Amino acid sequence: TIIRRMDYRPPDWLVPDVTLDFDLDPALTRVRATLSVTRNGDHDLPLRLDGEGIVPLSVCVDGRPLAQDEWHLEAGALIIALPDTAHSVETLVELSPEGNSKLMGLYASGGLLCTQCEAEGFRRITFFPDRPDILSRYSVRMEADKARFPILLANGDPIEQGDLPEGRHWARWNDPFLKPCYLFALVAGDLACNADRFVTMSGREVQLGIWVREADLARTDHAMHALKNSMAWDERVYGREYDLDVFNIVAVADFNFGAMENKGLNIFNSRYILADPETATDIDYDGVEGVVAHEYFHNWSGNRVTCRDWFQLSLKEGFTVFRDQNFSADMGSHAVKRIEDVRILRAGQFQEDSGPLAHPVRPESYMEISNFYTATIYNKGAELIRMMALMLGAERFRAGTDLYFDRHDGQAATCEDFVLAMEEGGGIDLTQFRRWYEQAGTPHVRALISHDPISQSATLTLEQTMPPTPGQTHKQPMAIPLRTALFDPATGQHRGDELLMLTEGKQSFTFTGFPVTPIPSINRGFSAPVIVETNRSQDDLAFLSAHDDDPFARYEAMQQLMVNVLVGRIAGHATDDATVIDAVRNTITDPLLDPAFIAETIRLPSEAYLGDQMRLVDPDAIHAARDALQQQIGAGLEPLWRDIHARTKANAFSLSPAAKGARKLRNAALHYLVASGAQDGPAIAFVQFSEADNMTERQAALGTLANGASPEREAALDIFYNRYAADALTLDKWFQTQAFALHPDTVDLVAQLSTHKDFTLANPNRVRSLFGAFAGNQWAFHHKSGKGYRLLADCIIALDRLNPQTAAKLVPPLGRWKRFEEKRAALMRAELQRILAQPGLSKDVTEQAGKSLE
Ligand code: ARG
Ligand code: ZN
Fold it and tell me: Where does the Aminopeptidase N-like N-terminal domain start and stop, copy by copy (predicted)?
């Protein structure tokens, strides 16, 4: 069945108060729920409480046990006819947390019991109207064996606890804030706490706790630091302070995604909490900081103001991603953060937007909401907020967010409410801008510069087109804010950065006072999530890659320079490689540039990104062309790579931006040095691998070695395995590195690894490190035999029986068949059909595979 946005109706019944009583046990947990329910409006509809995989052992209304014929189940939901406007409804159910392989609802992970309710997991715990516009006050009592589960946590504040006979104990937690049930959480287990405190701007003291297994306690400091920084940042930048007396975070090993913002009790995938130099890369450290911030920021953008229905998901996710991106930029480098975020957007969201699963930021319909936790909702959603912030300017944007938070505090709101607050608070008309929420697909902007020597004027002609997407054949022009500067090639200067608003299909902007044709720098800072096509020459791009004062535009010019050469080669044209090598040389020898920025800029566009630039993707030709250019850049600048690699070696580990930048550049230099084909390349990589005092350098060396065939490759993989076999998060890297390797045998290696004793479908991190990475390895996955497709489909089919949500996330790579030649396309479709033909296939995978075939 398909759920449509237009069918939204306010709830028939409200649930102002919820009392939950958990008798916890991994094999058999009993949940008694008492709901106060009130009729909403004038109707005589029965009460409908969603349920999934549970049956009521008893149902009482106002204290009276109901007979079997006074309630019934309908598609899992409990239906009760109630005579009056207010009642108390009590249900009792039994669950088996350790039998819950979907990791939704109440489940067991590494000896803990924990919950995940967003989006629709609460109905797997108890009967409840499981929709985000039902806001309730919760009181939770838990009891459990005290030795196995000494720590009992839930949302809100701890109220009371005590011991019980037979080695059991109990605790009660009350959450004074109204919340939707998707924010409910509890955790029980043997946990150690990194405890700290934070004093809010109004002087309230908050107890902070990060709860992990005792052995992991030493790896929680970075997360705690990030949490305190996030709390201070949200006060300073948005004027929002924390509202409860305690804030707890728990790390669990088995988790379907990154983390969850449950009120006062965030639950995290341990990979976004645990970090130390021995096991975490700088990217991991940044991931911890960003996700801790993200979940914390949800306390306002998500919890205090939540979503009316799941079509509004981007209201909280897009806005919160925007907030965490800006926080991370403030903690480190704005330039580098923007480059990283755009790379993520292009790799994930642009692909989604150009394929069969394209959907608007505010979707119109879905089968399974879990499938809509997408790059479009999150990352494109964040770009929409960013564009509004840009158009408004910092002060008016803040006025808009103040209005939004104040007006909707304690409410379940819509994307439209957010836009209205921006319009009223910021004083701007966003009528046309709203199309960004409605129309799927990535706009293409064609930008042509022309010059008239007589009037000494330059004209920039901008034309926008939007490709059709499923269900949307005709599109209206979008409002596209393009930060632009025109460079005078003679002086190397421009006259200022202007915000051009492209609102029509085609528009021209004329600038006077240009004796020669200027070089346009367009979409600076990536001001709009669009694809820009220009008539700039390779020389123009080389000029911008050396002179543009907007770091993103400078990076972009270099990338475009490389893309042009590579796409030209793949098409069989003679290309001017010297321009690229010169531009790389200029960049790596520029003493004024930040090493982290240099490392980002000189990196070749990924094989997948190159594929996106072509109508039909030829994975082998792309790989060959990119590999050859990499070898040329490596060999052409070999002494420089050696020099950089030697001088970026640090004496002692530090997380300072300078130290992180040095590691990033050192790894890039190593990569080019090995790619150059230099005899001693693998040996140098092996020395870095062996001597590094941090995972950033060790994993990069391993990754570089994994691409080629050398004795060092096998030795390093063995050493890495033996050193980290006992540490799941680090062993994930061993799987991931091999699945990502640009090595001719990767498909077969991944097949072997899928039968390795340490591989398991039960742990989503492990599945993603092997199969998620493999599906993102274009050259390997699209092996012309089709064996890569078969391997992934086998995994999806097996995993769907255990964990449909994580299985469904692996389907989209198979859905890109239209972009491949007929033989590969047919093989991909055949695998999608084979998946769809499985008996008992989940709704999650059915929706993804079905749409992928259309
Ligand atoms: N709200 C969580 C976050 O911080 C993610 C929840 C994902 N849920 C899901 N069903 N995929 O982004
Ligand atoms: Zn989120």
Answer: 78-183
Instruction: Write down the pLDDT at residue 812.
Output: 98
Residue closest by Cα to atom 9 of ligand 1 = 370
pLDDT score for 327: 99
Q: Would you place residue 325 in the very low, low, confident or very high pLDDT band (cuts 50, 70, 90)?
A: very high
Q: pLDDT tens across 240-290, in order? A: 999 999 999 999 999 999 999 999 999 999 999 999 999 999 999 999 999
- Residue 745 has a CB neighbour count (10 Å cut-off) of 14
717 alpha carbon – ligand 2 mean position (Å)? 35
The 10s digit of each residue's pLDDT in 346-361 is 999 999 999 999 999 9
- Using alpha carbons, select from 799, 783, 724 the residue that is nearest to residue 749: 783
CA–centroid distance, residue 715 to ligand 1 (Å): 39
| Three-class secondary structure of residue 143 per DSSP | strand
3-state helix, strand, coil in the chain (%, to 5): 45, 25, 30
Question: What's the Cα-to-Cα distance from 542 to each of 340, 406, 563, 694, 713, rounded to whole Å?
Answer: 21, 49, 13, 35, 36
Which tokens in the block code for residue 843?
Answer: 């709704």
Shortest CA distance to 449 belongs to which of 480, 495, 484, 481? 484
CA of 257 to the centre of ligand 1 (A): 7
Helix boundaries (H) for 651-710: 657-675, 681-691, 695-706
Which residue in this structure is represented by tokens 């990767």? 746
Output the six-digit token pair for 784.
């012309």
Q: How many CA atoms lie within 13 A of 134 on its CB side?
A: 27
Indicate whether this model's pTM tops 0.95.
yes
Nearest Cα residue to 295 out of 269, 332, 276, 333: 269
Regarding beta strands 192-199 and 136-145, do their DSSP bridges make them parallel or antiparallel, or are they unpaired? unpaired
State the pLDDT at residue 206. 98
Q: Whose CA is nearest to atom 1 of ligand 1?
A: 260
Distance CA 418, CA 361 (A): 14
Are the CB atoms for 219 and 213 separated by under 8 Å? no
Tell me which residue has its CA closest to atom 4 in ligand 1. Answer: 260
Locate 179 and state its tokens.
Answer: 């919340």
Give 636's contacts (C-beta < 8 A, 6+ positions apart). 581
The pLDDT assigned to 193 comes to 99
CB 489 within 8 A of CB 479: no
Backbone angles phi, psi at 366, to 5 degrees: -155, 160
| CA 266–ligand 2 middle distance (angstroms) | 11
Under 8 Å between Cβ of 58 and 65:
yes
* Alpha-carbon span 835 to 829, nearest angstrom: 10
CB of residue 368 inside a 6 A radius of ligand 1: no
Q: Whose CA is nearest to atom 10 of ligand 1?
A: 370
Average pLDDT across the chain, whole number: 98
Average pLDDT over residues 568-582: 94
Residue of 378, 251, 257 lying closest to 768 (CA atoms): 257
SS3 assignment, position 511 = strand
Instruction: Say which residue the tokens 């697909």 belong to.
Output: 441
Quote the ligand 2 centre to 313 CA distance (angstroms): 9
Catalytic residue among 52, 118, 120, 295: 295
**What are the DSSP calls for 431-472, one per residue?**
TTTTHHHH--SPPEEEEEEEEETTTTEEEEEEEEE---BTTB
Q: Given the structure tokens 């130290």, which residue do they identify?
A: 659
Cβ of 333 below 6 Å from ligand 1: no
d(CA 616, CA 780): 17
- Reported as a single tens digit per residue, the pLDDT across 370-401 is 999 999 999 999 999 999 999 999 999 999 99
Half-sphere exposure of 633 (CA within 13 A, CB side): 28
Active site residue 160: no
User: Alpha-carbon distance 485 to 676, whole Å?
Assistant: 37
Q: Is 317 in the pocket of ligand 1 (CB under 6 A)?
A: yes
Peptide bond into 119 cis (omega under 30): yes
